Amino acid sequence: MRALDPWLPRDVPGVRRFLAAAGAAAACSAALTVAQAVLFSHIVVAGFLGGRDVRDVVPALLGFAGVGAARAALGWTSETGARTAASRMVAELRGRVLRRIVRARPGSVPTGEAVTVTTDGVEALETYVARFLPQLATAALAPPAILAWVAFRDVPSALVMAGTLPLVPLFGALIGRTTSARTRERWRALAVMSGHFLDVVTGLTTLRAHRRGRAQAAAIAATGDRYRRETMRVLRTAFLSAFVLELAATLGTALVAVGIGLRLTTGGIGLEAGLAVLVLAPELYGPLRGLAAEFHAGADGLTASRRLSALLALPPAVPAPARPRPAAFGTVRLADVTAAYDGPPVLTVTSLEIRPGELTALVGDSGAGKSTLLALLMRFAEPSSGLITVDGTDLAAFDPDEWRRLVAWLPQRPRLRPGPVLEAIAPAEPGGLSPVAAAELACAGSLVHRTVGEAGDGLSAGEVRRVALARALARPAPLLLLDEPTAHLDETTARRVTGALLTLGDRTLVVATHDPRLAASADQVIDLTGSRAGALT
Ligand SMILES: Nc1ncnc2c1ncn2[C@@H]1O[C@H](COP(=O)(O)OP(=O)(O)OP(=O)(O)O)[C@@H](O)[C@H]1O
């Protein structure tokens, strides 16, 4: 297992500084540990065994207390500093990942993956940064510093230490190879479980309506059980590794102690030096044992960091160029445009002109590419080839978010913000229709006192659509892209909605529809049937 993912110091601001601070704290802590051992052995040998006057060892006693206080203060400062820095870093990272997910092509990140990575994954990374990385710095710096001092005072003990010390990281690395595979499996099981659970909760109303709710219980139990088994496997490895590493460290300390004991009886080493080395022996293995204790926090954090970096590397659905939106809304032209989703083109449009103030109806068989064309105009995706222009300027030259300020969208499967219907309709920006007027236009006037539940609960599919249409109409956008505005509506309501759309003479409408009456009212009708095979419009 690699201890540090290179993208972390490279791409996350503050990690380098954090590592440098952790390294400096570890070096100070090692120096203080050696000083404390030296003072301790001096006090014991001179004050108690040497029979000197207590006053002679007062300076050493004061020094010992001072070093102890300094170690405690350093430990406290490092820990609180690490926690604060880690939570700040991770909060920034969570924001970046969320922004990247939002900018990615819709549907390109599985929901379960997005949820687990931005919740549990980010928390695992916080533990990794706050606990594992400082421990890693201590384990890298403290043992060599202690070993160097021991070599200076007692070469045989230093040789025993140098021989046994690598056993701890060696065993750790061997166990780590198994651990990282197991941890990856555990995360995969968690993502599957989250995604499945979310799907079931979202579709609970439908499942209950068809009396299939209970059938899902077994499926949830199975995914939950898989996650439980993976977690238990990881825990088993964790306990085993802690045991093996403790054993290696204890054996090392025992060998040093036996060597010093034998040489003390033959006079091969002085009591003060022997005692200092003996006190330092557990301190030598301590940082590596501490690292082993944090090993699983490390493995979890590394897996999370890999997944986070994969999400951060997601290409945005459309790159964001510097140019803002067009100064005024004009004619939109499509020339030789094709669109594809990770495969062959699903839409080909040779030539299409969307003129200001007109109603353009997109018709055609199911799957013909109507929603795809609206997605291109929304800039949720870029054309695979060809050009879309606004008054002669390439649409790709404009900032997608700025462009979307000019566009109101009724999606094929609208989602409403839970809460009062009026709030769901109210546009975020000023200048549009009042929510009540927009609701009246969309034949949703009778719904304005109703409340939307989670996932549109409390409203029928047709009511959700009318409220979502009102939301689109309320926005002060000159271009309206409406995906099946009359779907799920009875004939009378559909006719009233069509009539209302025809009164929006100052706005440009592009409507994907299967409703012949709505299509008949349009200024131009574009039939996309066969456009997948390249039958050009
Ligand atoms: N996210 C996606 N990933 C892969 N293929 C997709 C995706 N969305 C749509 N498609 C495919 O692209 C083609 C065009 O789909 P689109 O939704 O644009 O059709 P449509 O004309 O709006 O259909 P409908 O009238 O049924 O709503 C279809 O073959 C569809 O399977």
From TrEMBL:
Source organism superkingdom: Bacteria
ABC transporter domain boundaries: 332-536
Membrane topology recorded in Swiss-Prot or TrEMBL: Multi-pass membrane protein
Main location: membrane
UniProt key word Transmembrane: yes
Annotated GO biological process: cysteine transport
Pfam families: ABC_membrane, ABC_tran
Ranges that cross the membrane: 20-45, 132-152, 158-176, 238-262
Cellular component, GO annotation: plasma membrane
Places the protein is found: Cell membrane
Protein name: Thiol reductant ABC exporter CydD subunit
Organism of provenance: Actinomadura luteofluorescens
